[in-house]
Design brief:
two-stranded antiparallel sheet; 2 strands; globular; binds zinc ion
Amino acid sequence: MDPFEHASIPTLVYLALSEDPAWGGALALIIGATFPDLDAFTREHRSYLHSLLVAIPVFAPAYISGNHYALLFSLGWLSHLFLDFFTGVIPPVYPLSRQGWGVTITARGGPSGTGFEVHLLERYPDPRHDYELNIGGSTALALLTLIALVIRLH
Ligand SMILES: [Zn+2]
């Protein structure tokens, strides 16, 4: 999943669910939602910042303190892990273990029938490598999110 998708999806949820959304809150959420991919600069793309051992200790004090921006930042971070869980694997207890888990869901339809297949993935995250992202579809999603932000927050 690319940064536009990671930023757009929780932002649209924030705009839909918040009674009083604001630019500052949206910015904190977007920064938190894209922050974990700084792991791309470490040995493995999904490592420290994709671990619940790191994310939960950030979320818990933000939740307890009630600081609006810290909470939105950490919720953005958790949304990143949630979305990555469905597009590969996340290593929940990294660096104690590199083992990652994720889910793939495949929908089938055609003359032979329809159905869904759900598979639990269990493997090590991909090692760091150069990425080539096709961001055409996610650019459209980012533009729609920007339009929703302008309409909802003007
Ligand atoms: Zn990620």
